[in-house]
Write a structure and sequence with these properties.
With about 550 residues, the protein is α+β, with helices and mostly antiparallel strands. It contains ten helices and 20 strands. The strands form four sheets. The protein has a seven-stranded antiparallel sheet. It starts with a helix and ends with a helix.
Length: about 550
């Protein structure tokens, strides 16, 4: 096969992943999938390695290959996958992320030869558990976090496993939305399979397998060249989370030791805190996604991002740490670990390639969940994931209220929320004074307010960055930490960032203030007009 053939196939596989992406966007039902865009799609080689992906969530995309490899090695061997089978799981200890994320995979065959897999991951609106949205902040074991689905064939030989569908629907608060989104996932797998089958009809199975190997080898070579261009040495950095929601005020430490040696990198996480009681833990697949993303984003462009990029990177993380939790530790808030681990990785990489690495972004998923209860007992659920400001770069200011790092989410339109929930958004704006100062300032965080229009509502939040602020680099200032409060009868009461099932009454207003991004470089007497504009806009 010529290099042109390889590039045609690579781009066609990327287009297949993008077609799967669009299928979910157009056919999903819940606001967290259809509007927030909290889902990802990808194509894998015949052995389960990530080969091509859509432009979606780094948190998902850099862990889906690990999930599929786990399924193949431990639960459903490749020989047991039929051409019309769909295997799903959401179990973090069977390759998943956290329970709201359901993974679905399907094998692709041509002339009886397995040539690829296709996969889709959706963050579903609810899978049961202590709190609506399945993001309880007080869970102390995974059994409290919701329905745990082991690797199972949801569809076998083209036939739905109705018993599994009924078990799922029976254990969640919004079965119509989840089962609708799950159907959307399955439809996306068919779109991906059909696209790859058309490609295989043109090139044949042997050529598809050869192209897969060469695509991964090319990315490995590109990643090795990028690492080799970094100066050899060991670089250390640490960041921390506020607490786990159970041991209040006890920080969770994330310490990174990055060693560059020739064209390979080793990341030692052995000094991170032991796993905690609360749900601020992550499995190794989740943590690896942050490590891989940090090095891939620091490498620059010029080669495809896929599992070939992982080959030059070794991660050391003993089991029992917050970055490699042991079952049955709760992991609902695993993204807090990966956000902060990415910030720590960037702090270490700044020492190696300072011209490429920005200051800390907000580094937190501000997860808020509202559950309103109707007179007949039915539940309405809204899950929102707010963001903050990005960190300043070495040559430019940070971006206001920008989905950064492990995120790539959109926001849910206010009109959509108010049309579907008894809630009103009374304020949504950039928040002055939240950006870190510096030669280049960070981006601003935001403020959002929800007013309760229902008689009965339960509020849950699982957040961080209320004490440990996003750091600045090279003399830049830290950003402001976040804040959350309840406004009732003219009185403001602070609400802890990790709170479950707080009862709200009609007229209550919940206000969230998110962090900005850190500044880069020591403040200087920049152009007077620029500085005055910064002051007027509320950055500094």
């Amino acid at each position: 096969m010529t290099p042109v053939d390889i590039e045609v196939i690579r781009n066609a596989l990327t287009a297949a992943a993008a077609e799967m992406d669009v299928t979910i966007w157009r056919t999903s039902r819940s606001t967290i999938v259809r509007e927030l865009l909290d889902y990802s799609t990808a194509v894998f080689d015949a052995d389960g390695w990530n080969l091509a992906q859509s432009a979606r969530i780094p948190q998902h995309l850099n862990s889906m290959s690990a999930a599929l490899r786990t399924l193949l090695e431990r639960f459903v061997p490749a020989a047991e996958w039929g051409a019309d089978d769909v295997v799903i799981t959401n179990d973090p200890y069977c390759g998943g992320q956290h329970l709201p994320d359901i993974l679905a995979f399907r094998a692709v065959y041509h002339d009886g030869v397995r040539i690829a897999f296709v996969g889709a991951l959706c963050h579903h609106i609810d899978v049961g558990g202590l709190a609506a949205g399945s993001y309880a902040s007080k869970a102390t074991e995974i059994f409290q976090e919701g329905l745990r689905i082991p690797p199972v064939k949801l569809i076998e030989n083209g036939v739905r496993n109705d018993a599994v569908w009924r078990i799922i629907g029976q254990n969640i608060r919004k079965p119509d939305l989840l089962l609708g989104d799950l159907t959307s996932q399955i439809a996306s797998l068919e779109m991906g399979r059909a696209a790859i089958a058309r490609l295989a009809t043109r090139y044949g199975a042997p050529a598809m397998l050869e192209a897969s190997r060469r695509i991964l080898d090319m990315s490995e070579a590109g990643m090795r060249a990028a690492i080799a261009a970094m100066p050899d040495g060991s670089y250390e950095f640490a960041d921390q989370l506020d607490d786990d929601g159970i041991d209040f005020g006890k920080p969770i430490h994330l310490r990174v030791k990055l060693t560059i040696a020739g064209d390979s990198a080793t990341v030692d996480l052995s000094a991170c805190s032991p796993q905690v009681q609360g749900p601020t833990n992550a499995t190794l697949a989740s943590s690896n996604s942050a490590v891989m993303f940090a090095l891939m984003s620091a490498a620059g462009t010029g080669f495809a991002m896929n599992a070939g990029c992982y080959r030059p990177i070794t991660v050391i993380a003993p089991e029992g740490l917050v970055v490699n939790a042991r079952a049955p530790a709760p992991v609902a808030h695993r993204v807090a670990i990966t956000h902060r681990l990415l910030n720590a990785m960037y702090g270490a990489l700044h020492q190696a390639v300072p011209e490429r690495i920005p200051a800390a972004y907000y580094g937190c998923s501000y997860v808020t969940t509202f559950q309103t209860i109707r007179d007949d007992g039915r539940r309405d659920v809204l899950v929102e994931i707010e963001i903050g400001g990005s960190g300043a770069a070495p040559h430019k200011d940070g971006v206001n209220a920008y989905a950064s790092g492990m995120h790539n989410n959109s926001n849910i339109p206010i009109e959509m929320i108010e049309a579907q929930m008894p809630l009103s958004i009374t304020r949504y704006a950039l928040l002055p004074g939240t950006a870190g100062d510096g030669q280049f300032r960070g981006g601003l965080g935001l403020v959002r307010e929800w007013r309760m229009d229902a008689a009965r509502c339960l509020f849950t939040s699982n957040m961080d960055r209320f004490h440990s602020a996003p750091y600045g680099l090279a003399g830049g200032g830290a950003a402001a930490p976040g804040k959350q409060m309840l406004l009732r009868d003219g009185q403001a009461t602070d609400i802890p960032p990790k709170s479950d099932n707080i009862p709200l009454v009609q007229g209550d207003i919940l206000r969230l203030e998110t962090s900005g991004g850190g500044g880069f470089g020591a403040p200087t007497a920049r152009d007077t007009t620029t500085r005055e504009t910064d002051r007027r806009m509320g950055y500094v």
